[in-house]
Specification:
This protein is mainly α. A hairpin with a 6-residue loop joins strand 2 and strand 3. The longest helix is centred in the middle third of the chain and has 48 residues.
Length: 429
């Protein structure tokens, strides 16, 4: 016995073909009037919608509505079923979506307009169905096919809308980059003021009085862009992404940035007048270089204004190294360990301007040890140790060495911090 596949026929397929063709012919003849009716109702419901004409001077909306009706009706006339749906006419409905995107509107109103059009079309089709005696079950199937067709129209508009959004985003990024390039240029050719105003206006960026420029380090190549907000100009195309923060001292701005930049690292330069943005960039770049060398904390976004000492003292390395060679020459003949302890004692003395007890308390050693070291220091430097300019230079280079980790911070001596003990009196080191 051979199994036979039974294909169930829909209610629309049961309609005699003569009636189907009569229905399609009538609907096609009334399509222009129906399109006019739908457009008129849309304009009454949405009077704010712009009227866009095609090259023939005809409203594009009218052309699109008429074409959509004709395609749907042709599908009914030349197909023996309503499943599968007609091919949605491209072009016009994508243009509708693009128009909504370019004008900054959502697709909500457009979808509402489409639903209005389908309701009006259904009323007309229902009337035609009664005239040519189409059974109600078949007409119900026609309604389902109509809404399925509507989904296709919406999909076309969504595609156009997404295309417009992508183009706008790309254009904004291009314009934003040109603005950043002008803001961060070391030297401006001619008067940049007008160019800044023009470029800022094109992306809707209000020119601030002050800015701070940040340089970021990516946590990973595929890292998601930080949500720094509309007002912050961010360019991720650089190897080390850059950003320009308007009015960085505004209330709550630092906290907002820290939250937005969680998981990122880098540095934000000092606030400067808008015309000096390149200077803030240079400090941020300098801070990032120090972070990469391990001389500033890594793994977070630093504010340069909180690390002024390190940035000022660690930047001019060659000059400071030359100054250190001259100022610390008396230590050249001391052993490394003893020389380092003398340097730490000298710095503590210069910072406290106190006697042996104050310096001892700062270093966590016995005052007798400090007195011994201070006598050695005076022997090594002589009367020059009392010269204010010499003392300033010594403090400068010693602070720089401490920042580099070459001498310990006060109280950071391992034997002192671990045990809390002091060396016995009479045993200077």
């Amino acid at each position: 016995m051979t199994a036979r596949t039974v294909v169930s026929r829909t209610a629309w397929q049961e309609v005699p073909r003569l009636k189907v063709h009569r229905f399609a012919a009538t609907a096609m003849s009334e399509a222009p009037a129906l399109a006019e009716e739908i457009l008129g109702e849309i304009r009454r419901e949405y009077p704010q919608l712009p009227v866009v004409l095609d090259e023939n001077g005809e409203p594009m909306a009218l052309v699109g509505i008429r074409r959509a009706i004709e395609v749907f009706v042709q599908h009914l006339a030349h197909s023996d079923h309503t499943t599968g749906g007609p091919t949605v006419p491209p072009g016009v409905f994508q243009d509708f979506g693009r128009g909504e995107g370019y004008n900054g509107r959502s697709l909500d109103s457009l979808q509402a307009i489409y639903r209005l059009g389908v309701r009006l079309a259904w009323r007309r089709f229902a009337d035609i169905g009664q005239r040519v005696d189409i059974p109600p079950p078949a007409m119900y199937e026609l309604v389902d096919a109509g809404y399925e067709y509507l989904d296709g129209l919406v999909d076309q508009s969504v595609r156009g809308y997404a295309e417009a959004a992508a183009r706008q985003a790309g254009e904004r990024l291009r314009l934003q980059r040109r603005l950043l390039e002008l803001l961060l240029a070391d030297r401006h050719h001619g008067d940049p003021a007008d160019a800044l105003v023009e470029r800022a206006a094109r992306i809707g960026w209000a020119l601030p009085d002050k800015v701070a420029v940040g340089v970021l380090l990516r946590p990973a190549r595929e890292a998601v862009a930080p949500a720094v907000g509309q007002g912050v100009l961010l360019d991720l195309e650089y190897e080390q992404p850059r950003m320009v923060v308007p009015e960085p001292d505004a209330a709550g701005r630092p906290e907002l940035l820290q939250r937005a930049l969680s998981g990122w690292a880098g540095a934000i330069g000092p606030p400067v007048p808008l015309a000096d943005a390149a200077k803030s960039l240079r400090w941020a770049e300098a801070a990032v270089r120090l972070m990469e060398r391990g001389l500033l904390p890594a793994g977070e976004v630093l504010f340069c204004t909180e690390h002024t000492e390190a940035l000022v003292l660690l930047q001019p390395e060659e000059l400071l190294d030359d100054l250190a060679a001259r100022c610390l020459a008396p230590l050249a003949h001391c052993g490394p360990t003893h020389g380092r302890r003398l340097a730490e004692t000298l710095l503590a003395w210069l910072e406290t301007r106190g006697g042996a007890p104050e310096v001892a308390a700062r270093l966590g050693v016995h005052p007798q040890t400090v007195r011994y070291r201070l006598r050695q220091i005076r022997e090594l430097w002589g009367d020059g140790i009392d010269d204010p300019d010499r003392r300033f230079e010594l403090e400068l280079v010693l602070r720089a060495r401490r920042l580099r980790g070459e001498i310990a911070k006060a109280g950071d001596h391992p034997w002192h911090t671990r045990t809390g003990t002091r060396r016995p009196a009479g045993r200077p080191d």
